[in-house]
Design brief:
The protein starts with a helix and ends with a helix. Helix 8 runs antiparallel to helix 9 (210-230). By secondary structure, it is mostly helical. The protein has one domain (2-304). It has twelve helices and two strands; from the N terminus they run ααααααααββαααα. The longest helix is centred in the middle third of the chain and has 29 residues, at 167-195. The protein has a two-stranded antiparallel sheet. A hairpin with a 3-residue loop joins strand 1 (199-201) and strand 2 (205-209). The relative contact order is 0.11.
Length: 305
């Protein structure tokens, strides 16, 4: 306990404890209400967070090394899911796997040396690959597009440690990113399940509704104000703006990966996380929110310091 307190600080440790308490209450509530359906989707999703939360917690405890380690873990699991969609042939898949792994390793290594250069290079590679995919409609091009987008996103996780802020604020913003991204997904899912009536993009993701989106925005807004104020990250106006933008950004990331799955002809990238699908199904929102929040902080850091 003393070690965790010294590593995270009292505020983040308390907020983390509250999240585990909320998760315990959610598990208990779902367990009592769904005793007749032990394999229900909602039960599986809630229980899966008992695997996801500890991974994120360990990443925070190992800060600043935890962020790049989490990026590598996400990348390794995502690579297992994307490799089968590469051009048929074991040799080609092996080439893709090794090339993709080298790109991820180089991206994370160069992030510590020349972060603007690697960001610009990856952005250019994503643009070129996107243009090629739109012209060819090749599954192979789409797989590379997803991989480059993932590399671009996770490369921002270590960059939070380089923000021109006090150490406790840098860790606080990273914690804020993880919490808002995760709970925005949960709030959209619950709101859509309970109140969803009007679909947003039925041809891409039939379960996405305007009611779910609005519920996610509302819940994220409240959470952002509460958590951001408690951790002394920013004033209420900026926290509210960040919440809306991150909620919409997370939704767009989810929608983009849903569209990719439609093209690839799969419902989930894998069954790694019961109730959630694969790692790419879980981090699709983070692909947008990680760089988005970083740039929001950078553009306002003079006012945050």
């Amino acid at each position: 306990m003393q070690l965790a307190l010294s590593l995270l600080g009292a505020e983040i440790l308390t907020a983390l404890g509250m999240l585990y308490l909320m998760l315990g209450m959610a598990s208990l509530g779902v367990g009592l209400s769904l005793r007749a359906r032990p394999q229900s989707q909602l039960r599986l999703q809630v229980n899966a967070w008992w695997w996801i939360f500890p991974v994120v917690t360990v990443s925070l405890l190992l800060h600043p090394a935890g962020a790049p380690m989490l990026a590598l873990l996400i990348g390794a699991l995502a690579l297992r899911e994307l490799a089968p969609f590469a051009v048929p042939g074991n040799a080609v898949k092996a080439v893709f796997a090794w090339s993709a792994a080298i790109i991820l390793a180089a991206t994370l290594a160069l992030t510590f040396v020349k972060p603007p250069a690697i960001t610009a290079l990856l952005a250019l590679a994503i643009l070129v690959t996107l243009i090629y995919f739109l012209r060819s409609r090749s599954n192979s091009a789409l797989v590379w597009l997803l991989w480059l987008g993932l590399c671009f996103s996770v490369s921002f996780l270590p960059r939070y440690e380089a923000l021109p802020l006090a150490p406790h604020q840098r860790l606080g913003w990273l914690f804020y990113l993880y919490v808002l991204t995760s709970l925005n997904d949960v709030a959209q899912f619950i709101s859509g399940t309970l109140f969803g009536r009007h679909r947003i993009a039925p041809g891409i993701s039939p379960n996405k509704t305007w009611q779910g989106l609005l519920g996610g925005v509302a819940a994220t807004l409240l959470l952002s104000l509460a958590l951001g104020s408690y951790l002394h990250l920013a004033d209420a106006a900026r926290l509210a703006a960040y919440a809306v933008l991150l909620s919409l950004g997370g939704f767009c990331g989810d929608l983009m990966f849903s569209a990719a799955k439609r093209v690839l002809g799969v419902k989930d990238f894998s069954q790694l996380i019961p109730g959630h699908g694969g790692i790419l199904d879980r981090v699709d929102s983070l692909v947008v929110t990680a760089p988005l929040l970083y740039f929001l902080i950078i553009t306002t850091q003079g006012k945050l310091a």
